[in-house]
Design goal:
- The protein is of the alpha+beta class and 357 residues long.
- The chain folds into two domains: 2-147, no CATH class; 226-355, no CATH class.
- 20% of the residues lie in helices and 28% in strands.
- The strands form two sheets. Strands 1, 2, 3, 4, 5, 6, 7, 8 and 9 form a nine-stranded antiparallel sheet that branches. Strands 10-11 form a two-stranded antiparallel ribbon.
Length: 357
């Protein structure tokens, strides 16, 4: 295998590549917060322009296409037997930090412009005769936006900030000059020095939703009953004399038939396709939702009913028994909420978004 990189990587520093606005891990948060007598706001700007190119040769290791038609690595479309591919892309990264008077409060922002955009990939008009490139609607991506406050007992940080852990194999902030991407997390963190060590604690909001707009239309509200699951886990973990395995899953999962009925009630657009085609479409994607849909559709193909549950555990092929969990929680006054209102709100939101001008 040969991988040759052209010497075309250019890093033009807007300022020095300091670590001030590059906070990624806990050890970086608050490092540039310093109490001083300056009574004015201050601004610091860091970043770079990266233009790079590669020559990629024989990365499919001469394997050719598999019986399924898939290849180990892309090959030239005009000549599958050829071995060499070329690629050039660019990125303009800007790290901005604004410090309040006194230096104890900072707001930081990371913007990536034309992030990993292949050069020449957006010709305006016929590619062979184009004299310009189209402007992109999503040319600027906000990667990070968070604030830091120095308190008498430590540093408090909140917002969307870089996420890096250890060597970067689990989570990588992507701060290196040649990094293609980077992890970010919506996080509230507190860091404080105690007994000669730096201690950090954080609360990460990894996912939320589905959400619906408030009556004002400006801010959404999360309608997922996460509080039920959290309360149930605490009750089961702290209960005395309870041994065994407890599955926390909604006993009453939404069925495919109910989804179809909800879509029809809200006049959502529906397209009929053969089941085999839908299975192929779902299995070609690697997200969790597609895996669940594919598993449900396979049940239909194998003689199952449309009413088959669409819950997440269906994708595992294992039937979770929540009866013991429900019995214990019912004694504590906890009843699993019905998924019907969540489905209705989610479909209604999707239909409104589709019909809005």
């Amino acid at each position: 295998m040969t991988r040759v990189a052209l010497p075309l990587t250019v890093l033009l520093a807007v300022c020095s590549l300091a670590s001030r606005a590059h906070a990624t891990g806990f050890t970086d948060i608050g490092q540039d917060i310093r109490l001083h007598d300056d009574d004015e706001f201050s601004l610091e700007l860091d970043g770079y322009l990266r233009v790079r190119g590669e020559i990629l040769h024989n990365l499919d290791l001469d394997h050719g296409a598999a019986p399924s038609g898939e290849v180990l690595f892309p090959v030239p479309i005009d000549d599958p037997q050829a071995q060499t591919l070329y690629e050039m892309d660019m990125r303009l990264r800007t790290d901005l930090a604004i410090y309040a008077p006194g230096g104890t409060v900072a707001v930081k922002l990371r913007l990536d412009t034309l992030d990993n955009l292949a050069l020449g990939s957006t010709p305006d008009g016929a590619p062979s005769a184009s004299t310009t490139q189209r402007a992109l609607e999503t040319a600027i991506r906000v990667r990070r936006a968070y604030g830091e406050v120095l308190t008498p007992i430590g540093v408090l940080a909140a917002g969307r900030m870089g996420n890096h852990w250890g060597l970067g194999m689990l989570a990588n902030g992507g701060d290196c000059a040649d990094c293609d991407s980077g992890d970010a997390q919506d996080r509230i963190a507190f860091i404080t020095p105690i007994a000669g060590h730096v201690w950090a604690a954080s609360f990460d909001l990894t996912s939320s939703g589905p959400q619906i707009p408030r009556h004002s239309g400006f801010r959404p509200v999360d309608i997922t009953p996460v509080d039920y699951a959290a309360h149930a886990m605490v009750e089961l973990a702290l209960g005395e004399g309870r041994a065994g395995t407890f599955h926390i899953a909604n006993e009453r999962a939404v069925t495919l038939a109910e989804i179809v009925a909800a879509l029809r009630r809200h006049s959502a657009p529906q397209v009929s396709r053969p089941v085999d085609e839908l299975v192929d479409l779902a299995t070609s994607r690697d997200d969790v939702a597609s895996a669940v849909v594919a598993a449900s559709l396979r049940k239909c193909v194998s003689g199952g009913r449309l009413g088959r549950s669409t819950d997440l555990f269906l994708a595992t092929g294992y039937d979770f028994d929540a009866r013991a969990t429900a019995a214990v929680l019912a004694a504590r006054g906890l009843v699993c909420p019905s998924p019907a209102p969540i489905l209705e709100a989610h479909v209604e939101k999707s239909a409104l978004r589709h019909h809005s001008p």
